[in-house]
Amino acid sequence: QMRLVESGGGLVQSGGSLRLSCAASGFILDYYSIGWFRQAPGKEREGVFVFNGNDGSSYYADSVKGRFAMSTDNVKNTVYLIMNSLKPEDTAVYYCAAKRISPADGSSWYDAYGYEYWGQGTQVTVSS
Questions:
Q1: Residues 17-45: what's their mean pLDDT?
Q2: In a designed cystine with 12, which of 6, 16, 29, 54 is the match (CB 3.0 to 4.6 A)?
Q3: What is each CA distance from 16 to 70, 77, 88, in whole angstroms?
């Protein structure tokens, strides 16, 4: 059974750092794009950072450039979102998501509808 479980959210002050973890079970990461989305109250879910397990490429939102990074641990089958220089506007529920890499996939990395598997989400709150 394919499952994604996030952890690591919490409350942090502006300028602080957090690391989110996503433990993937039932996946072979080489065959999936896996990454992070977030959803703030009253806003649509947006792509934050995604890693292509096949070719190792990464995609990220302009709003997190230079502040966020992703890493993977293929032994633990876990991906991480390292968040630095956090801002109040980063406050959201963060979701781990994955989709099988397919040439028939017409969605872009940031299209939430293209992802088949989702974690339960973890809250990140950045205070000013």
A1: 94
A2: 16
A3: 17, 27, 10
Q: Is-contact 26 3, C-beta < 8 A?
A: yes
Structure tokens at 128: 């000013």
Question: What Å distances lie between residue 98 and 13, 23, 86, CA to CA?
Answer: 29, 11, 24
- 114, 108 Cβ separation under 8 angstroms: yes
User: Burial of 25 by CB count in 10 Å (0-12 exposed, 13-18 middle, 19+ buried)?
Assistant: exposed
Cβ-based neighbours of 88, under 8 Å, separated by 6 or more:
14, 126, 127, 128
C-alpha span between 31 and 44 (Å, rounded) = 27
Residues 68 and 81: their CA atoms lie apart, in Å, by 7
pLDDT of 74: 86
Alpha-carbon distance of 27 to 33, in angstroms, equals 11
How far is 113 from 82, CA to CA, in rounded Å? 24
